[in-house]
Amino acid sequence: MEFKEAVQYRRSVRAYKPEPIDAAIVQQCLELATLAPNSSNMQLWEFYHITDPTILKPLAAACLGQGAATTAQQMVVFVTRQDLYKQRAKAILNNEITNIQQHSPTEKQASRIQKVQLYYGKLMPFLYSRFLGILGGVRKLLVNIVGLFRPITYQVSEGDMRVVVHKTCALAAQTFMLAMADAHYDTCPMEGFDSRKVKRLLQLPRGAEVNMVVSCGIREPHGVWGARRRVPFEEVYKRK
After folding, report:
1. Residue 15 belongs to a domain with what CATH number?
2. What are the DSSP E strand ranges found in the chain?
3. Inter-CA distances, 82 with 4, 39, 119, 211, Å
4. Range of the domain at 75
5. pLDDT above 70 as % of the chain
6. What pTM, to 2 d.p., does this model score?
7. Count of domains in the chain?
8. What is the pLDDT of residues 179-218, one digit of tens each?
């Protein structure tokens, strides 16, 4: 499809046909999801592609038994992994150093490497670390002092950073759903679920959080609830 067609085709489908879908295509769409923009390229996400009926059934129950889950042929659970910030930052730092060495002018390499070492070696671990809200309070204090002298990002509390991680995971989920629409497959993003049951079912570690569950399949005609309704564009569009 053209991009506009894929956006228009995508709907939140509440009932799917009892027809299997190709797991390889769903996996390819998830690979495309990894190309979604995300904060500082930290990629603090994981995608759990559920195809096993013995997991799909209890997962649907954990999604409150809604039709979008009980009729789904497959599901994808988008998970945030803020607890992996150290290893992700280290991997990105190594990649950035290699990029600089291969593509930057020789005379600029040392200064650029120093900057990325500071950013991914010090700043990112400092921003994403958590300890009972205390570290977030320290960060807020520091940025408020620096903000007296120059523009700075103020959203650095532990709650703020959790929001950042979930926002970027949601960007990956949206990219996935558009890729699925392009493949003529349907999806429904669900926020109505028992997160504790989902975590237990998938055996997620303590530091992981469920961002959303996306059901997958081929739509039944009644699975799309009428014409798309949106707030009038002039109410949300503000041009300055």
Report:
1. 3.40.109.10
2. 45-50, 74-80, 186-190, 209-217
3. 33, 12, 17, 12
4. 3-82+169-225
5. 100
6. 0.94
7. 1
8. 999 999 999 999 999 999 999 999 999 999 999 999 999 9
